[in-house]
Amino acid sequence: PVQPANGEWVDADEWRSYNVARDPVAITGCVLWLDAATIPSQSNDTDLDEWPAVVGPTPEQTTATNKPHYRTADGPGSTPAVSFNGTSHYFALGHTLSNRPWNHCTVIVVAKFGSTSGEQTFISQDLSGWSGDLLFGMNPHDSLSPAPNTTSGRVGAMFHSTTANTHQIVEKTGTVDTTNFHAWALNIDNAAGVMDLWDGGS
What we know:
By secondary structure, this protein is mostly beta strands. It has one helix at residues 12-15, and strands at 46-47, 69-71, 81-83, 104-111, 120-124, 134-138, 155-160, 167-171, 182-189, 194-199. The strands form three sheets. A four-stranded antiparallel sheet has the order 5-6-7-8, with no helix packed on it. The protein has a three-stranded antiparallel sheet with strand order 1-2-3, with no helix packed on it. Strands 4-9-10 form a three-stranded antiparallel sheet, with no helix packed on it. Strand 7 (155-160) and strand 8 (167-171) form a beta hairpin. The chain is globular and about 45 Å long.
């Protein structure tokens, strides 16, 4: 869900209709907002060195084989999009967001999957054994031991709790839709030991 200025929680089915959701600056505590429509116009399939952030640090990629592609009209309503190949494409922020309050946060992603196989993550932190790791995407797995997994073809998330040395796991039932864009919203409240995942639909 999104928490507008009035303090009310909005279900993912409704968040896109909220004016505040269209203005990231108006969302109190917003630490990162990426919008493909704000990337300076490129030719179709251009390799991207960075994704200029509307709010927060700009993700970058300097390795040619790992650069995502700019797509001129593959987004919702034929808007620009950033395309990842699901295997080697990614942007890196280093540890810039490591000190962010993952213990109590909301992450919203608008995306369409090209297939139901492989590990296709929205956000993946360095799983080096320290607490507070977050994985969110399709088929995310955890390199820590034991290694819980979400079911193949499902969107899910795992968070390594900082209040108890355990994993919180949540996933949506059913195989992901590879035809339409969906708005996914993940809410983490570590103090309450709760992690919720909404599929806002297409």
